[in-house]
Amino acid sequence: MMDPFTDEYFMKKALQEAAMAFDKGEIPVGALVVAHNTIIARGHNLTEMLNDVTAHAEMQAITAAANYLGGKYLKDCTLYVTLEPCQMCAGALYWSQISKIVFGASDLQRGFKKMGSQLHPKTTVVGGVLAEEAADLMQRFFAARRK
Amino acid sequence: MMDPFTDEYFMKKALQEAAMAFDKGEIPVGALVVAHNTIIARGHNLTEMLNDVTAHAEMQAITAAANYLGGKYLKDCTLYVTLEPCQMCAGALYWSQISKIVFGASDLQRGFKKMGSQLHPKTTVVGGVLAEEAADLMQRFFAARRK
């Protein structure tokens, strides 16, 4: 039997979070934390609504996941996020010792790879999952803002 | 007349925040945000109490300062922090476009300099202010934990 819980399956859910940010006029980035095939935390970018540069989707999902687990380490968890994390979020993920990060579109300007941020040695990374859908949402957002 | 509002003056206040973290059994790091010689936000490390790796002193001070100012950019502000920021906090400070960062003790293992994090081009940095006091507090904390 095929495993329904693929990276694409969870990334679609993260894209739904990103769409919620889009609808609020926020840069459309969504994130989930998954443990044992269960979504334990969700977040979407709220930097405008909260007037807070730290309110990225990943940060909220990390805090919510730790709250759910009752411990601050996300050792058996996977973060799904529609856009490559920035250095702040990569730094938070470093501290969380998360097992796996799956991201959608690359951020060639402010992504953690370009910025040279370090992840925890125990963390594996997969990029490019449903990248076109994530990038398309971003492009539509910025095109609408320019009008 | 001598300016009473020196970096040492505000760092002493940040050390008081660090001492509050110490008393709660948290790694003793304290932070302030200052605008026009007025302390507009304070924070101390609460990662254990909140079960949250993102609850560093700087992150709380950044969020509180933006809340006070009603805007997410800290362009005319200075962050005082007793320990060199990590890559997460450096990343948050990058987004905030803060004018100046003053830190106490260097963190040679996990500090943003060692980790290669990038600050905003508009941000100036001063390190080593009351560094011995900050380092002493850290050493006493870890010595007590080893007992």
Automatic annotation (TrEMBL), chains A, B:
Pfam families: dCMP_cyt_deam_1. Gene3D superfamilies: Cytidine Deaminase, domain 2. One of its GO terms (biological process) is tRNA wobble adenosine to inosine editing. CDD domains: nucleoside_deaminase (cd01285). PANTHER family: CYTOSINE DEAMINASE FAMILY MEMBER (PTHR11079), TRNA-SPECIFIC ADENOSINE DEAMINASE (PTHR11079:SF202). Zn(2+) binds at H56, C86, C89. InterPro entries: APOBEC/CMP_deaminase_Zn-bd, CMP_dCMP_dom, Cytidine_deaminase-like, tRNA_aden_deaminase. The gene is tadA. Binds 1 zinc ion per subunit. It catalyses: adenosine(34) in tRNA + H2O + H(+) = inosine(34) in tRNA + NH4(+). This is tRNA-specific adenosine deaminase. The lineage of its organism: Bacteria, Pseudomonadati, Bacteroidota, Flavobacteriia, Flavobacteriales.
